[in-house]
Every structure is written in C-alpha cells, then in structure tokens.
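Open question from group meeting: does this chain pack into something compact, or does most of it stay loose? Before anyone orders reagents, we agreed to write out a predicted structure and look at it together. Recording both the input and the output here so the notebook holds the full record.
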Amino acid sequence: MNMRFITAQVMLTLLILSSFPCFAQQSYTISSDQQFTVAGTSTIHDWEMVAKEGTTGSAGLILENGKLSKITSLKVEIPTKSLKSGKGAMDKNAYEALNAAKYPSIAFEMTEFLGITGTKIRANGKLTIAGKSQIIPLEVSYSISGNTVKFKGTHAILFSDFKIDAPTAVLGTIKTGDELRLSFEAGFSPKN
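Structure tokens returned:
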C-alpha cells in the first residue's frame, strides 16, 4: 500500500475519534467545604445539630463540557459525635438515643443513580443510622465552582424508621418529635 494512503487513513481515524466526546470517570473526595444539619422539634422548642468536621466521603463523577453527566458512586460517613447543638445535655441525650458508643457513625451510600435534569439529581441511597438502614430517595441540586462539585439538599426521615426512640429530657417531660429534617451542603474535589 501507498504510504500516503496509510497516513491519510490514520489521520482520518484520529479525526473521527477526536470528534466523539470522551467521558472519563474521575475519583473525588469530600472537601472541607461541607455542612450537615439535623433539625427537629420538641415539646419546648425547635432544635438543630450541625456537623462541620470529621466527615469523610468519596464519589465517582463524570463531567462533560463543564456539567455533571453521571454519578457512578457516592459515599459519605459522618461521626455521630461530630453533631453538635451547642447544648451539652442535648448532645448527650442525642448520642445516647443514637447509641453512638456502639454505632459511631452515620453513613450514606448511593445505591442507584436515576438521572440529572438541569442541575437536579435524582438517586436512591442507603442511609444507616444507629445500625439500621433504609433506602431513601433523594433529589438534590449541584453546582460546579472551579474543580469542586457541590451538592445541596434536604430529606425528611423519622426516628421510628430507624427503630430509634426519640430523645427525651427532664425525666421525660421534654419530648423530641419523631420527624427529622436532614440538610446538607457538601463539596467534592478531585483526588490528587
């Protein structure tokens, strides 16, 4: 065969291949840009506990043209005792209710990626609290700043879904409501 013909074929093949977008999964890890909040009610007042430190997490993300196109994996683990209300007695009651000595962390792992519409992501995941797991649906938003992908969302759960007795105080006269609202803002950056 003619060398020019072979060179032309190779160049044409490279041109065709380069015209298809390349989608490579990249591994991400949770950054310091994060906050997880648990909020609820009681017979006295509303309350919230916030975890800002100690959380670990990883994700497999695929970005295309500056947008998130798929999540292949996502895991987050929050140390139970990193949740703080600013009131020591309340924290102690919460840790006891969550059996923090036996189950030192709260974990979420995505089990099914359902899709992305605009900046909204739908997925199912396994949420584990106090050793009990539930599959929950999530709809969260995402944004990209530099090389960080930030997720933001809320989800309501019940203590009773996880077989947890809602915390009480003052010999049971102050009772926490069964419903909790989980809120989060978590940034993920590429692993180095």
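Observations to bring back to the group:
The domain at 23-190 is CATH 2.40.128.110 (Lipocalin).
Confidence is low (pLDDT under 50) at residues 10-23.
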